[in-house]
Design goal:
With 122 residues, this protein is mainly alpha-helical. It has helices at 2-31, 33-36, 49-52, 65-76, 81-88, 92-104, and strands spanning 42-43, 58-59, 62-63, 120-121.
């Protein structure tokens, strides 16, 4: 009987340790998201105003795939047509049309695209 109690206590200890570790990982991710990522995982940066105006975002009047990703990241953060358009130096109509693509890609839950000149790896 003592062995059964000891086994039950050890099982409870393992369960509690796992739960505490999970909760601490959540806290670490909240306060230090870079540290919480596995090594080599890309860090998707929120674009600054300078990033939005980078000449590599456009070819003539059209956005490059990287420019589209930067616009999508602005939309991820809740930017409206006007603010996103001003930041990217494109029309509100262009933003509205790309927002349809953003929604089709899954909106905020879409898979982000790595931008070599903007993003880093952990």
């Amino acid at each position: 009987m003592t062995a059964e109690i000891t086994t039950a206590v050890e099982a409870a200890r393992a369960t509690l340790h796992a739960e505490i570790d999970r909760q601490l990982d959540v806290l670490i991710a909240r306060f230090d998201p870079v540290r919480a990522l596995p090594s080599g995982t890309p860090i998707f940066k929120d674009p600054s105003d300078a990033d939005c105006l980078d000449p590599r975002n456009k070819t003539g009047l059209n956005l490059t795939p990287e420019g589209v990703e930067i616009l999508f990241r602005l939309l991820d953060k809740g930017a409206g047509y006007n603010s996103a358009g001003r930041k990217m130096s494109i029309t509100q109509t262009a933003v509205r049309n790309r927002k349809g693509d953003w929604n089709a890609a899954g909106g905020v839950k879409r898979k982000k695209r790595f931008i070599p000149y903007l993003d880093t790896t952990a």
